[in-house]
TrEMBL record:
Keywords, ordered alphabetically: Glycosyltransferase, Transferase
UniProt superkingdom: Bacteria
Domain Glycosyl transferase family: 626-786
GO function term, MF aspect, one: glycosyltransferase activity
Catalytic activity, EC: 2.4.-.-
Enzyme class: transferase
Alphabetized InterPro entries for the sequence: Glyco_trans_1, Glyco_trans_2-like, Nucleotide-diphossugar_trans
Protein name: Glycosyltransferase
Pfam families the UniProt entry points to: Glycos_transf_1 (PF00534), Glycos_transf_2 (PF00535)
Occurrences of domain Glycosyltransferase 2-like (ranges): 44-150
Length: 818
């Protein structure tokens, strides 16, 4: 197959949103590459600032919120902001004592390239995270960055960006693109992937590309400096394209982190100084000058007439003044900064690259994709085995020839052979001591280990089993998603025999991965002596349940369901294979028994519990949480949970907006999730920065310790764990009437108010009632704690689950009662 090559060593790649984004094999890497610590102590976050202080403060607050315990430094390089803007910035920085922030005042606008280069003189760490101030965090990016550096061995790593909605991709990866432009060639840098929903991406691992973003990337400082940094002849515009082109020519790798932790939101200017900054940022003259210099230096066109139209559109979006004929009004640009061309490189005229163009570009891309599909496995596998051979590592059975034979003969193999050839699943078992004497061993299926009520409940169940010497194994389908939190350490600490099925997908390298997941499940059941399986929201477990009960008829299948929607449909479909459905509230119990005609003997209500000994309020209140100040002397009304649509965090902000004038009430949001960016934008929209504090993920006990009222405006819910914890802490709850909430929260029980979401006015009234009436609040607080101690203690839940195993009908391996 021919390769499209330019005469200056530029190779034209296929569409990089395809399989051509080959991921590296971690087994081929060494420990010689510079280390990046997960705590960030060897990292400096460099923020280039020019007026727009509100954006810089938003970014700093997001670092406080999303990177608790960050040990690195923050360097703000100011490019000549107005005096009043700098004064405001300095005042706010002084209050952020948890962050080590240095403010460098250039006193002039040095442009983007020189501004970033000059900042390096003040950086004392090995690594730099370069961020424009119109970006902010919604998750902690340090683990994702460390993973990308470790896997790819790259000195430059892009971080993915989302649009302001927090759901749509703005930039994911970066690549140089070359295309014909008249009788010349145009080069640009843009996202490797299209701007679609982040949930539509199959890519889950770091990958390589060819373009590094100036305002959203990590780089190794020494390499950046030795390579010359940005070309300072370019005041603004195309400086990152120019650097990327030089890196590409020298064969320097550019990597990409995979997790979405950043949002790009360039808001409308709020004052004249901000507007002036935007006129410089989007100055046609300045950007065109940089484009002309780029063309003289490299022979590629980067400036096109269409850029003028794009600038006009940006001016309109940002509500900047326009001159005659709709052109941007740049008459005051010369007064703001010197934008004269600063060419230092002379040439004998532009040297334009020649590009060999394939006649059938679409077919070329298809051939490339198909070639990758057929060769990816073999290329990596061959390299792996060659290295193993040189190191004299014994063959472990996973040979290339075995794989080829398997692919060739798999249709003719018997089911027995298919399940064991060529992989030896027993070698994937954890090296732990197995209690072969127990007849109650349990295998628990969960989708992942995130921060959530269902996960907390299952963790309590596991702790109860372990306390009663019952062996437990866990199968999680996938690793936790960053935006949903990660509780895998908590699970691993309690139950070391856990398996993330997704971790083995690269090993099997087979489209039919669920077949291998099933085979590994069978191995766990046999080697661990499993007699019971418990399915909690696991689509994988539901899908193989029929086969499990056919091949292991002695298994008792226990299925907790938490609401009448969601996985309830799976429970109904698989009813004949489920021995016992456990529900946590009367609403779900009634639905199964009355509506679904489920025999009452196959439904058992076990209410989730809370560790009342742990969740017990102590005197006093902290003045900071996640390094955010908790206002003294105010009533703290809190939302604590996953920021997703069913939990209603947007409704909470609406309620806060209604009570904006109540100066004695402050609203607190703790948690993370897919709606994080939406919530931040909503707070800005209503001007609630002084009324609402969003602190990101935080310890539930610490949050409830500073909380006076918990608000749970769920559109859909079961029996949320946060409500149990809140009541145990003596914190009354104001909630919607979703799921099992009415059985926990009511005015009659004096645990709070359970209201209809159709009337937000009733939420306002209830909040004011408990915030303004100290005697009633004290009564509700005492009653909440008493109710939790008597009805909600976790020991009651754990004993009930243990009895389920004790009372089960025993069967032999053939399913016959014994």
């Amino acid at each position: 197959m021919k390769t499209n090559t330019l005469n200056n060593n530029i190779i034209v790649r296929g569409y990089t949103g395809s399989l051509s984004l080959m991921q590296t094999d971690p087994s081929l890497n060494t420990d010689l590459f510079p280390r990046f610590d997960h705590n960030g102590k060897d990292l400096t976050i460099v923020i280039l600032s020019f007026n727009r202080v509100a954006l810089t403060l938003r970014l700093l607050n997001s670092i406080l919120r999303c990177m608790p315990g960050y040990e690195g430094r923050i360097l703000i390089a100011d490019n000549g902001s107005a005096t009043e803007q700098l004064t405001l910035l300095e005042e706010k920085i002084a209050g952020m004592k948890a962050l080590r922030i240095d403010l460098i005042k250039y006193g002039e606008n040095r442009g983007v390239a020189k501004g970033r280069n000059d900042a390096m003189a003040y950086v004392k760490t090995d690594w730099v995270l370069s961020l424009d101030n119109d970006i902010y965090l919604i998750e902690n990016p340090l683990n994702a960055i460390a993973k990308a550096i470790r896997m790819l061995g790259a000195f430059y790593i892009n971080v993915p960006l989302l649009k302001p909605d927090g759901q749509t991709v703005d930039a994911y990866g970066g690549d140089l693109w070359i295309e014909p432009y008249g009788n010349r060639y145009h080069i640009s840098g843009s996202s490797s992937y299209q701007q679609i929903s982040k949930n539509a991406f199959p890519q889950k691992l770091p990958f390589l590309s060819t373009f590094v973003y100036g305002g959203a990337s990590v780089f190794y400082k020494d390499h950046f400096l030795k390579f010359g940094g940005y070309d300072t002849n370019m005041f603004i515009g195309f400086e990152d394209t120019e650097l990327s082109l030089r890196l590409y020519k020298e064969g320097v790798k550019v990597g990409n982190a995979a997790d979405f932790c950043f949002v790009h939101a360039h808001d409308t200017p709020v004052n004249q100084q901000d507007a002036d900054a935007e006129k410089i940022r989007f100055s046609s003259e300045a950007i065109k000058n940089s484009g002309e210099y780029f063309q003289q230096k490299h022979g590629f066109i980067v400036w096109q007439e269409g850029i003028d139209e794009w600038i006009k559109t940006r001016f309109k979006e940002l509500q900047l003044n326009q001159g005659e004929n709709g052109q941007p009004d740049n008459t005051d640009i010369a007064e703001l900064t010197d934008l004269k061309p600063r060419f230092t490189q002379e040439g004998n005229g532009a040297k334009f690259a020649e590009l060999e163009i394939m006649k059938r570009e679409v077919q070329r891309l298809q051939d490339k994709i198909e070639a990758m599909e057929s060769s990816k496995f073999w290329t990596l596998r061959k390299s792996w085995f060659n290295l193993r051979k040189k190191l004299r590592i014994a063959n472990d059975g996973y040979s290339i020839l075995d794989k080829r034979a398997y692919q060739k003969n798999k249709r003719s193999l018997s089911v027995k052979d298919l399940n064991s050839y060529p992989y030896q699943y027993d070698k994937l078992m954890k090296d732990i001591k197995v209690n072969s004497q127990s007849a109650d061993a349990v295998l628990i299926f969960i989708p992942f280990m995130v921060v959530g009520g269902a996960e907390t409940a299952i963790l309590h169940v596991i702790k109860g089993f372990i306390k009663n010497n019952i062996p437990v194994s866990i199968i999680a389908t996938d690793r936790s998603y960053p935006e949903m939190g990660d509780t895998s350490r908590e699970f691993a600490a309690v139950c070391p025999d856990y398996y993330f099925l997704e971790d083995y997908t690269d090993l099997w390298n087979d489209p039919d991965q669920w077949k291998h997941w099933k085979n590994l499940t069978y191995e766990i059941i046999k080697s661990r002596g499993i007699n019971n399986i418990l399915i909690s929201n696991s689509s994988f477990a539901y899908s193989i349940l029929k086969e499990l009960k056919t091949d292991f008829p002695f298994l008792q299948v226990i299925n907790p369901v938490y609401s009448t929607v969601g996985h309830m449909i799976d429970n109904i479909k698989q009813e004949k294979y489920i021995d016992l459905t456990i529900v946590e509230n009367p609403k779900v119990e009634d639905y199964l028994v009355t509506m679904c005609q489920r025999p009452a003997t196959k439904v058992l209500r076990i209410e989730n519990g809370v560790d009342t000994a742990m969740f017990k309020k102590i005197p006093g209140r902290a003045d900071q949480l996640n390094n955010f100040t908790i206002p003294a002397g105010k009533k703290i009304v809190t939302f604590l949970g996953r920021l997703s649509d069913e939990k209603g965090p947007d409704i909470f902000v609406e309620i806060a907006a209604r009570l904006k004038e109540q100066s004695h009430i402050h609203f607190l949001i703790a948690g993370g999730g897919p709606m994080a960016a939406t919530i931040i934008a909503q707070i800005d929209k209503y001007g609630l920065q002084d009324n609402v504090t969003y602190i990101g993920y935080a310890n539930a006990f610490e949050v409830l310790s500073v909380t006076d009222l918990l608000v749970v405006p769920s559109r859909m819910d079961g029996r949320p764990n946060v409500v149990l914890e809140s009541l145990s802490m003596g914190v009354p709850v104001i909630c919607s009437d979703a799921g099992g909430l009415p059985w926990l929260v009511s005015e009659n029980l004096h645990t709070g108010f359970c209201l209809n979401l159709n009337s937000l006015a009733s939420f306002e009234k209830a909040i004011l009632q408990l915030c303004n009436d100290e005697e009633q609040y004290r009564k509700f607080s005492v009653a909440s704690r008493k109710f939790a101690e008597e009805k909600l203690d976790v020991s009651l839940m754990q004993k009930a689950y243990h009895k389920v195993l004790e009372k089960r009908e025993r069967m032999d391996k053939k399913g016959t009662l014994v």
